[in-house]
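Page 37, continued from 36.
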């Protein structure tokens, strides 16, 4: 590793022009604008979870100073699908994001995954697809089981009952208008949501006309239409709210709800933007108290130390959190020494256990199309488009731009996708692979000299087989809004990847190796999912319009052919990476305990999607807020004692 000290080094202590304590919170662009007296809590990363924690800590402790250090800047963050149409989708998002191209994925013909991560105040909540669902109860109960089995690791409960109050607290839900509910058939249960936090969850007033065809097709296939899917039970056909303001339909994200909403009144909450947390340093050893936070100015490369009196909280996201930890000497000793970094705590779990949602699509053509309107192709019509833009700027907003990505999905258990017998076969296949050692052989080479990582993987597999065999835990998600295809999401993948420092450029993005499909069981699941999705095309709801399968196409039937198809059309990342600093027992490759404290250290916690042990049956933003809320609650209780 290039020594970090080759850049100009200036100590923070004794800087002139520092702001006096009484000054209200404001965005700071230079370390010289930080407060003379220092900070009690420092949060590294002003994203979805990080700003939630900072807001709650500064609210709970008016006398303590909270600093957030954020790589990006404060920006108005438009919704992914907001007008103008010329910026639809990717381009505008990537301007505020890290663009990560993964290592080639061997089992997918060396394709690379494209994955983004927010690089702006608000983090990924400011660039994401705004689909705002929650995990299933069973995901959380399994997570709690994963940490509780081996004894106490901090005493916090992460089962559904333990986290549910924080899901409720983290958002304000507004029911749709009576007219929209009537027109679209929306259902909900407002009692599973909160009403005080300005992170908004709401329904769009608009749906595309062909939406109901796919919805009815899933009903034909037997998916139960659920009234509400955010209350723990989500096996069925779900209406999913969107993270947007109920009236303006503007994106609701943590930069707005957990910073701008409070920065005019909160005098103890500072945000330093355009600065990178490079690493944390314990001058007297990792158990001596909160570490010093080393920060680099993006403007001129200057390096500073900022000191926290109570705690440092790392919330830099699934790729950058393990990079900060590895630069700090927290990681697998052999990997650190290869990068020229002294090991401070040997924690092989750092940057291990990488997972993401992936899956393949099926497509069809209608041979008897109805006269549906509105449909997305009408956006090519100048008058339709002009009305869509005008509608979005009305109060309340109306029209296509209020829809975001989608607000509907099915979540189906594996035994409803196949049969009990086939599901049991799959479960037994995983169990055999644990017994005969073939499961371990699918792991990255640098796992296989580490007993804890190997034990942790088998431990996870045992828990995931329970989820796979459970009638209430979804194995497949498929979201839909309009059009001639639907995509499968493999909700509980069993392949594992890594995030490792780029040894020649340690301050840049780390190297992301997904290793998707390295455990062949995932291919069985992808194939089962494609077979299930294609059955949807044959339902009466679809046949009414003469739907014919266009992909994979009727000729593609056998397992080997379907595997080949999946390899060709896979989406390798639905942008839900997780688990690179997992909450697991230390002897199972864990990095944090249930209190989110990093094993072997004092004064350091991790609060972001890195801490998940495995993926849940949901997208991650609602969970990132709930984890932030629950973490803040634990920290506040501890410092009140
Ligand atoms: C394009 C995209 C689409 C998505 N779609 C959806 C969706 O529709 N629904 C859904 O629920 N989820 C979605 N997700 C996932 C979800 O948004 C994320 O999982 C979640 O927001 C992650 O929260 P986090 O707190 O872990 O990290 P983030 O919110 O990413 O926050 C990390 C923050 O740390 C900052 N940072 C990083 N490194 C440093 C450093 N060294 N120093 C200082 N600051 C640093 C970053 O700039 C960022 O602000 C999507 C994600 C993306 C990227
Ligand atoms: C930051 O603190 C560490 C540990 O005390 C020290 O080695 C380093 O020189 C300091 N850096 C600066 C910029 O003061
Ligand atoms: C709050 O943040 C916004 C955005 O950076 C800034 O314009 C405003 O001045 C801040 N308010 C206060 C009181 O500092
Ligand atoms: C993928 O890359 C590996 C390593 O470079 C190579 O051995 C393999 O042949 C490649 N596979 C394909 C399908 O190109
Ligand atoms: C490390 O980063 C540099 C600069 O971005 C890049 O050129 C190089 O390919 C990266 N290394 C690896 C192994 O990806
Ligand atoms: C479906 O439509 C596409 C585009 O018009 C066409 O290329 C394809 O051949 C059609 N497939 C079938 C099975 O009708």
């Amino acid at each position: 590793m290039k020594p970090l000290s080759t850049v100009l080094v200036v100590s923070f202590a004794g800087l002139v022009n520092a702001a006096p304590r009484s000054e209200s919170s404001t965005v700071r662009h230079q370390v010289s604008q930080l407060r003379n007296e220092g900070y009690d809590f420092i949060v590294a990363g002003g994203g979805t979870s990080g700003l939630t924690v900072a807001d709650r800590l500064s609210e709970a402790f008016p006398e303590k100073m909270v600093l957030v250090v954020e790589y990006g800047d404060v920006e108005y963050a438009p919704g992914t699908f907001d007008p103008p149409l010329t910026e639809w989708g990717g381009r505008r998002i990537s301007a505020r994001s890290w663009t990560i191209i993964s290592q080639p994925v061997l089992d997918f013909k060396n394709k690379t995954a494209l994955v983004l991560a927010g690089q702006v105040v608000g983090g990924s909540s400011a660039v994401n697809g705004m689909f705002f669902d929650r995990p299933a109860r069973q995901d959380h109960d399994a997570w709690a089981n994963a940490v509780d089995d081996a004894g106490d690791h901090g005493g916090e409960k992460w089962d559904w009952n333990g986290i549910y109050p924080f899901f409720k607290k983290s958002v304000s839900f507004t029911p749709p208008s009576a007219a929209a509910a009537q027109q679209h058939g929306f259902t909900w249960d407002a009692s599973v949501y909160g009403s005080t936090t300005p992170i908004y969850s709401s329904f769009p007033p608009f749906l595309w006309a062909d939406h109901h065809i796919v919805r009815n097709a899933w009903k034909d296939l037997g998916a139960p239409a659920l009234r509400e899917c955010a209350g723990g039970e989500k096996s069925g056909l779900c209406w999913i709210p969107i993270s947007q303001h109920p009236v303006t339909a503007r994106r609701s994200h943590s930069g707005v709800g957990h910073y701008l909403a409070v920065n005019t009144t909160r005098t103890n909450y500072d945000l330093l933007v355009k600065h990178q947390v490079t690493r944390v340093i314990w001058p007297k050893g990792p158990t001596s108290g909160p570490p010093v936070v080393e920060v680099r100015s993006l403007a001129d490369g200057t390096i500073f130390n900022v000191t926290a009196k109570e705690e440092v909280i790392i919330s830099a996201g699934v790729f950058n959190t393990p990079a900060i930890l590895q630069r700090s000497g927290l990681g697998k000793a052999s990997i650190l020494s290869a990068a020229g970094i002294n090991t401070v705590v040997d924690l092989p779990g750092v940057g291990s256990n990488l997972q993401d949602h992936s899956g393949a699509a099926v497509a069809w053509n209608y041979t008897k199309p109805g006269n549906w309107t509105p449909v997305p192709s009408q956006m090519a019509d100048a008058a339709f488009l002009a009305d869509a833009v005008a509608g979005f700027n009305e109060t309340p907003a109306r029209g296509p731009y209020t829809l975001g990505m989608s607000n509907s999905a099915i979540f189906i258990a594996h035994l409803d996708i196949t049969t009990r017998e086939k599901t049991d076969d799959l479960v037994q296949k995983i169990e055999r692979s644990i017994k005969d050692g073939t499961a371990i052989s699918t792991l990255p080479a640098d796992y296989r000299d580490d007993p804890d990582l190997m034990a942790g993987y088998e431990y996870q597999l045992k828990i995931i087989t329970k989820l796979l065999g459970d009638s209430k835990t979804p194995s497949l998600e498929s979201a839909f809004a309009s059009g001639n295809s639907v995509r499968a999401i493999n909700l509980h993948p069993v392949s594992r990847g890594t995030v490792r420092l780029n040894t020649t450029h340690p301050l840049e993005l780390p190297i992301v190796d997904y290793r998707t499909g390295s455990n062949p069981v995932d291919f069985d699941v992808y194939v089962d999912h494609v077979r299930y999705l294609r059955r949807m095309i044959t339902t009466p709801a679809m046949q009414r319009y003469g739907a014919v399968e266009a992909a994979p196409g009727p000729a593609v039937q056998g397992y080997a052919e379907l595997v080949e198809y999946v390899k060709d059309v896979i989406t390798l990342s639905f942008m839900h990476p997780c688990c690179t600093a997992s909450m697991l027992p230390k002897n199972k490759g864990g990095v944090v305990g249930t209190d989110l404290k990093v094993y072997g250290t004092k004064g350091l916690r991790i609060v972001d999607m890195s801490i998940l042990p495995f993926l849940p049956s949901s997208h991650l933003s609602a969970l990132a807020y709930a984890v932030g809320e629950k973490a803040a609650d634990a920290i506040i209780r501890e410092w009140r004692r």
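Confidence is low (pLDDT under 50) at residues 1-24. Flag for discussion at group meeting. The pocket of 2-acetamido-2-deoxy-beta-D-glucopyranose (ligand 5) is lined by residues 502, 504-505, 508, 511 (CB under 6 Å).
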